Amino acid sequence: MAVTMGTPLTRVLGPKTAGSMADQLGLHTVGDLLRHYPRRYASRGEQADLADVQVGDRVTVLAQVRSVTTRPMRNRRGSLTEVVVGDGSGRMKLVFFNHRHAQLKPNAWGMFAGTVGEWRGEKQFAHPDMHLLEGTDDEDDWARALVPIYPASKDVSSWVIQKSVKLLLGASGGLEELVQDPLPEKIRTRHGLLPLAGALLDIHRPTTLDDVERAVGRLKWDEALVLQLTLAARRRAAALEPGIARPRRSGGLLDAVDAALPFALTEGQREVGEELAAELDRDQPMHRLLQGEVGSGKTVVALRAMAQVVDAGGQAALLAPTEVLAAQHARGIRELLGTLGRAGELDGDPAGTRVVLLTGSLKAAARRQARAEVADGSAGIVIGTHALLQEGVEFADLGLVVVDEQHRFGVEQRDALRAKGNRPPHVLVMTATPIPRTVAMTVYGDLEISTLRQLPSGRGGVSSSVVPAVEKPGWVDRAWERLREEVGAGRQAYVVCPRIGDVAGDEPEDADGAPPEDEEGPRSDRRPPLAVLDVAELLRSGPLAGLRLDVLHGRMTPEEKDATMRAFAAGETQVLVATTVVEVGVDVPNATVMVVMDADRFGVSQLHQLRGRVARGRHPGLCLLVTEAPTSSPTGQRLAAVAATSDGFELARLDLETRREGDVLGAAQSGRRSGIRLLSLLEDEELIATARTEATALLATDRGLADHPGLAAEVAALATDERADYLEKA
Ligand code: ADP
Ligand code: MG
């Protein structure tokens, strides 16, 4: 039987290899293997690889043997062989016990794979897997300028993959027989793209890097087009299932909110407000992302949209990432609405509505009541945490979903809430962490974007400084003095630590607040991060003695947290020592100082978020980033960058650059199974936009993809892929 892309690898490769490929790399079919692209290409000419590898990396390198020395071991029987490989720029030691590789001689070329270790400050491989390049069957491959280095696994080395691919490429009939090009000829020529067979051949066996570039260009096109076709089809389907228009009505909640606001809206807030008001007035569900600098006043924009929906007879739900934040939103909104938010109560205005807070910590009876009010529609405004998403929470008529701090939620969570509408509700998601346009377009399913760039006027702004604790210990004392001065002037302060403390080795407060990858080596070499409980104790008995100080962290019960926040908001507590629970949204305008301990343990965007807690009133804020990292280290420079700019958009870009895209998109939202292998949502904006135009054109006729069975099949494959679920729901 002829080999096709769908042929199981077990039929073309040995059972052991095929088994390991399936188990360790998730490669099951010929197509899977052909789409397992090299990670990079090594060449014998330029050899920068060795200088770049990091301790702890699992890598495959192409290198030349410099020297081989064998000596008996001192304390044990047997011999130790040290092989130095490398070139001018980098070298590395390979260590073998009782080595028996006679061919491993100076000047031999080989590929070596393993986990990079370190011994007395030198990088080394202990017992690497290796494949020497002198030889018989591979001669032709090794003679090539470029050697593909594949993502490999324990039992499937890069060179085994290379050999297996070669087998497929050389199969009878060749690649042209094996692969059907799904791309319409017209599109291919219009954009000057290689045929699929040629692209696959070139990506696996290129002669030059130009070959690779052209191949990648073509293969990315397939990914972008299939993705955009899927999204375009979904847009058409969504247009067929309209939502409900929620027109603005005067004399209701919205007017009351506007009258009660203690400030004038900024121009940006007004503009975005108009945009939202108009969109809510359509039966095409709104699908909008509101991104705005920390402290730019997103909440009130959301509240006004919620009020409009309630005025129109619907319900609005606000999903917040933490109980502290949900409770704060509920408090603020209730205050603003006054009697209009207490319909049904003794002093309530019957023309108003009810504001319900639904969190995981509600006692059974309170939860029952809250759910009942949500279900019968008497609660027009429903605020909550993940508890909102649970089964059993039913809305009478959910008209608007607002997701605060979108970066803390997955798409699934937003969609779980969205699904609680009888008809698709309007959706507004808010974030202070900007999302690139293509990501909003694809991963989040065509979100329109509004931006609030302006901060309300009269803000004092925050000035930030790095306090290098090792280089300038005196500055740390000065930091506590500054804090005392502020508190003496009637202000309040936060001290933020990465860890809670008390329990040995407890983890950072929340997984998603994990700092970016360490530049300074393995974590285990470093002392544990400073902990809230320890630091609070030290401060109480030391530099901050006599101040009213309290702690806030995730191990406290929700009641304790709420009481602590209230006391702080009321000014009873002067200094709050806390974990990142204060990161998002917490709003106490009288707080003006924030001292971040071990600031190097936080990510760039996170620090910016944290700092946003002290820029919220008319008094200028001060943020001190205390760190033991040397000023000149990459970490020190990262902190300096945070201190130097208050532009969250610029910092977000810096953050994106230092993180991998997978982290940005979330593990489930990127990766091989979703059909995206080469395409970068961050870097391929233009290509994605072009593919979008082609996709729309392809679907514009009644025949849809009927004339393009290859493409239709790819789209169908993506749709049935369970991991592509997120697209389905977006
Ligand atoms: P974020 O966009 O970070 O969520 P918030 O909505 O919490 O910001 O607003 C930050 C603070 O600014 C709040 O205290 C809020 O009441 C206040 N605020 C919002 N809009 C204005 C405005 N137009 N003028 C003055 N203060 C405002
Ligand atoms: Mg907010």
Automatic annotation (TrEMBL):
Residues 279-452 form the Helicase ATP-binding domain. It comes from the Bacteria. Residues 504-520 have a biased composition (Acidic residues). GO terms for molecular function: ATP binding; DNA binding; DNA helicase activity; hydrolase activity. Residues 501-529 are annotated as: Disordered. Residues 475-657 form the Helicase C-terminal domain. Coiled coil: none annotated. Keywords: ATP-binding, DNA damage, DNA repair, DNA-binding, Helicase, Hydrolase, Nucleotide-binding. GO terms for biological process: DNA repair. PANTHER family: ATP-DEPENDENT DNA HELICASE HOMOLOG RECG, CHLOROPLASTIC. NCBIfam families: PRK10917.2-1 (NF008167). This is ATP-dependent DNA helicase RecG.
